[in-house]
Amino acid sequence: MLKKLKDLFSLEVEADSAEDKDKKVQQACAVLLIEVALADFEQTESEQEKVKNLLQRTFDLSASELEELIEFSQTKGSETTSVHPFTTLINEHYEYEQRVNLIKLMWKVAYADGNLDKYEDNIIRKVADLLYVRHSDFIKAKLAVADSHHH
Q1: Which residues contact 2 (CB under 8 A, 6 or more apart)?
Q2: I need a surface site. Which of 11, 97, 101, 126 has the fewest CB within 10 A?
Q3: What residues contact 75, with CB distance under 8 A and at least 6 apart?
Q4: Per-residue confidence in pLDDT tens, the chain, 151 aa
Q5: Which helix (H) or strand (E) holds 60?
Q6: How far is CA 21 from the centre of its chain?
Q7: CA gap 139, 134 in Å, rounded
Q8: Distances from the Cα of 59 to the Cαs of 27, 77, 129, 132, 146, in angstroms?
C-alpha cells in the first residue's frame, strides 16, 4: 500500500488522465495539511477529527483514502522529507488563488486545536514561500482564519 502512495508522489510517474492529476494534486495538498496537524506533536483527538473533516470536505476523499494519506504522512516522518515534491506539484497545477486558498486551509488546520504553535507557523511559512504566495496574502490568510476563531 505504501508503495502505491510513493508511486503516486514520485513525480516521474506521469498521471494518465486529468482525473489522476487532480487526485495527485489533492493528495499533495492533503499531505501538507496533515503535516501541519502533526507539526505541534500534540495530536489531540479533536484536532485529528477536525483535520479529517476538513480534508474530506475539501477533497472529497473516501474514508479509506483519508486513512491512507494520514498513514503516508506519518510514516514519511515530518521533518525528514522535504515538502518540495508536493509544492512543486501544486505549483504546476494550481493557480495563484488556489495556492492562497491552500495556505488558508493550512491555517485552519493550525488553529483547529485552538492555538497556534511555532512549528505550525514555520511549516506554513515555508510552504507559502515554496508556493510563491506573497507575504501580504500569507498574513491576510492567517488573519482571516484567526479572526473566525475569535468570534
Answers
A1: 71, 72, 75
A2: 97
A3: 2
A4: 344 444 544 443 455 566 677 777 877 888 888 888 777 666 677 777 777 888 887 777 788 888 887 777 776 655 545 788 889 989 998 999 999 999 998 998 888 777 788 888 988 999 999 999 999 999 999 999 988 876 5
A5: none
A6: 16
A7: 9
A8: 8, 23, 23, 22, 23
> Helices 45-59 and 63-75 meet at what angle, rounded to 10?
120
Residue 12 pLDDT: 39
Q: Tell me, what DSSP letter sits at residue 23?
A: H
Q: Output the pLDDT for position 116.
A: 81
**What residue segments make up the domains of the chain, in order of their start?**
18-150
Closest by CA position to 123, among listed 37, 30, 15: 37
CA distance 36 to 118: 11
Report the C-alpha gap between 135 and 144 in whole angstroms.
14
CATH fold group of domain 18-150: TerB-like (1.10.3680)
pLDDT at 139: 96
Residue 40, amino acid:
D
Residue 63 CB neighbour total at 10 angstroms:
9
Write out the three cell numbers for 68.
491512507
